[in-house]
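Table S2 (continued). Query chain:
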Amino acid sequence: MDTAHRLSTGHLGIDAVVDGLRLGDNVVWQTDDIADFRAMVGHFVAQARAESRRLVYVRFAAHEPLIEDLTGVHVHELDPTPGFESFATAVHRIVTDEGLGAYFVFDSLTDLLDGWGSDLMVMNFFKVTCPYLYELDTVAYFCLLRGQHTFETVAGIRETTQLLLDLHRVDDATYVHPHKVWSRYSPTMFFPHRLGDETAEPVTSSEETSRLFGSLSQQHDPQDRWRAIIESGYRALRGGTSDGGGPGEGGSAEEGPGDGGLDGGRRDAGSEAARAARAEAKATLVRLLLGRGGRMVELAAEHLTLADLLAVADREIGTGYLGGKTVGMLTAGAIAAQHPTLAARLEAHDSFYLGSDLFLTYVIANGWWKDWVAQKDAESYHAVGAALHEKLAHGQFPPVIRERFLRLLEYFGQSPIIVRSSSLLEDNFGNAFAGKYESAFCANQGTPEDRLRAFEDAVRTVYASAMSPQALHYREHRALTDVDEQMAVLVQRVSGDHHGDLFFPHAGGVGNSHNLYVFAPDIDPSAGALRVVVGLGTRAVDHHADDYARTVALDQPRRSTTTLDDAGRFSQRKVDVLSLRENALVTVPLDEVRALPMDWSPFLTPDLAQVRRLRELGRATPTTPVVCDFAGLIDAGLATYMRELLAAVAGAYDYPVDVEFTVNLTADGDFRVCLVQCRPLQTRGIGAAVHVPQVADEDCLLAAEGGFMGGNVRLGIDTVVLVRPDRYLELAQADRYAVARLLGKVNRALAGQMVMMIGPGRWGTSTTDLGVPVHFSDVDNAAVLVEVTDPGLEFSPELSFGSHFFQEIVEQGIFFVALDRLRAGAVFHPERLTGLENVLGEVVGDAELGADRLRGGTLADVVHVVRTPGLELFADVVTQRVVATPSTSPLDDGTGTSRTV
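Corresponding output:
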């Protein structure tokens, strides 16, 4: 800061009071009337013009312009209503572009409350803007309307700014009263001063000072704008009464979906004014809670009532949007609640919500705002994102937020909770972000200090995932890098009950209103499907290579995807639960869980085929082998209920949906369903009928009956990438990860081509003995993914229906084949590929290939890449037949030679 050269406010008297301005000064004026601030701006602008200063006016408020003559003024008009991040980022770029030494005038900061409804974010805006203006040696004028902001907001601004000056008008006289003048002092500086045309006289006598301040109204801490909006909503809900509202006081109100509310028969509830007040209150909450518009927000606004929104607002920590996951969960619950037969079996929820503004507050409080802005630039997108990923996991929460967290934990007591991501873009039409962001269970045991520490770590984990490599790649792949993305958080009570030292729901899983895994010709896709497990539903949504969930086609729920002899082999063996003793999420054997004292007959059925085999072998077991088939629960009506539930929600969405749910049995043996999550199901549909050619087994590359997903297709394949099963199984574990890394390079190099990737075992597994441990970003350019069994692998390939990996395949439009070579009709001839030239080195570069050599050979021994012009894949849902075969034979590889696949 230039301390030697004093600058002028344009008013000689004020200059004398504050000892002039300095480069870098931010000057905040508090006033009752914007006209008084406009007069101060007039002096400042005139001085800037006299000194030929670069003058910038940032215009965003509804009040009259602060500068009448805009000649030579650089005016930037902004709209703050899209939210804090886009507005603050735009101002940051303006300050950057206007350069060093500019003079800035900002509209009244108080007007930002109308767009944001949050004192916290007004303070945050100033905290990120003021220091940057200071760094660039600017001088900037801001205004606050007195009595409109909480003491906490004004205190935060006072702490950040260089000058804070009060303006008062009393009996036609104007007074300026400095409250903060950084790095300057005089014996009379902090007295009120009466302003003349060019003078400022200090009011030092006790008599005059007492008379002056006695005439001013004493300030009480104004109500936070967000709290005022909520209480105004409660008054509207009750029919416009003047007393304050609060939680629980609007309970008699009844509303129809989307109507703004009818207030339980109160005498003025039907008046036009009351209806208008409710409609206005609801519109305000929709704008501030649900988002910036779009199909999902419109759907939520249609089905969530004013009472629903007020209940949510009362349980929000911080301010800002709820995020996609929360909006989807609330909307699906509201839709289901409109159907009495569905509502009767729905569990209630009492979730809390960390608003998106809290995430940005965390970023700002830890000094990372510059990084946050820089990360949006294409050249620093990944590098700064990686740095933020690390920082976000280790920041500190402001004390006032930690106190709110503690109160949240006091409410839940020692009930287990789950802290779930709910970003602005998540679970929306077109962008599911399935598995990209983190969720964290808190078993919630121990002292209050222990539980607070664990909860804060869980929130940090979710926040950090906003900058995870997987999330950044997903956004980049879907052209979302320049779209505001903030992380709200949904805090849910875990559905379930204590079972000894364990806590879990009886069952959990995922459901699709449209069955994308039609495993037989007579299955009706429109009936939907479930993927169900005993215990927490994590084993249904995560891609486990060593375990199996139960897939239920809702039109034929007792029908299995396996034969009777194989049912036990491909059944669930492990259960995810919360251990209250270990205070953690753990996985335990199913046999350990079934030993707990409860009736397991709705979930487990004796494995008669295994019992028979053991009897034939003369072997006895202490417990009867079982199949986890949920037959009893299905017969009790679960399949019928879930089909109706999915149909109701999908009907309201006018789009297929994907839900996560839990099931708990009541004391009388009935079941209750908790809707944990709902999002649009990204699907391209079955497509037009396709004729699958009749090809002899020896003439095709692969063929199968069933076990595929992606509808009716006919795809021309340019290139096949084969991970050779025999060579892969010979590798050490570290070398198998090298194969996965190489596939990522191949995937990126072949972007834009029609590529089929064939691998042994499961794509995306974390267990290298059971498949190739790729991330989805390593295979996301493929047109077709094929999983193939091998005699050396003790597993069966599975679509992992409902898993995050599955969701990504569906969203990306990848055709998927699970080729079990032990099943009838399965054909696979890898020698037709390995007998052709391997162009791996050509695709990724010989130098790149040499950098990842294996201990016992080269990567080219394991990964075989073949150009396959003329190869086509055919699939027909009705006949459940898929075939990959040359359309003509021999194939021309484009070099003038012929080859046969």
